[in-house]
């Protein structure tokens, strides 16, 4: 004899995840992870720019101290401390060392300025510096490279560098041309 037992299957109120629910969860997780990655990249760029600004400020203070060490030469009309420098356009020229030959104060200042320019070139990408007499180093909203060269104006050290921004047409980074990032007036 055979007995047939009809099993009653119960319907469970809980169901497993469907494929669509899993895909939606993966998409949401991916969007969140990409947002975190973008914020991390932005934080790294800001930290790099902060480092560049700190280096530029330290270099400006160093040059101001060099000028204060020889105030008569710094105030003169033919001062080697008044210059325009663009690292991307300058060639690496070296002048005679004042350690090997006797130098006057003008030659010594020129060697100091040249050493400072080399430090600037090493510290900042595509560095640019202008040291001049300027009564208005800034317009209403930003610093400017031009100088008015007024005889009674303060000596101003203007330093800028090339910030890197994403190019809209390519995957590469292109340098962004900009105004000076810092300007320091030197009291002599």
Please render the helix and strand layout as text:
Elements: H1 19-69, H2 71-75, E1 83-86, H3 105-123, E2 128-133, E3 155-160, E4 163-166, E5 173-176, E6 182-186
Helix pairs in contact: 1-3
Q: What can you tell me about this protein's structure?
A:
The chain has 188 residues and is an alpha+beta fold. It has one domain (19-186). It is built from three helices and six strands. It has helices at 19-69, 71-75, 105-123, and strands spanning 83-86, 128-133, 155-160, 163-166, 173-176, 182-186. It has a four-stranded antiparallel sheet with strand order 1-2-3-6, covered by helices on one side. A hairpin with a 6-residue loop joins strand 4 (163-166) and strand 5. Helix 1 runs antiparallel to helix 3. Mean pLDDT is 83; it is low at 169-176.
* Global shape: rod-shaped
Q: Find the structural class using helix and strand composition.
A: alpha+beta
Distance between the termini: 118 Å
Mean pLDDT: 83
Q: What is the domain tally?
A: 1
Largest sheet: 4 strands, antiparallel
Name the helix and strand elements from N-terminus to C-terminus, one letter apiece. HHEHEEEEE
Main sheet: which strands, in order across?
Answer: 1-2-3-6
Approximately what portion of the residues adopt beta-strand conformation? 15-25%
Low-confidence stretches: 169-176
What's the quaternary structure here?
single chain
Number of strands: 6
Query: Helix proportion of residues, in percent?
Result: 25-40%
Whole-angstrom Rg: 31 Å
Number of helical segments with 4 or more residues: 3
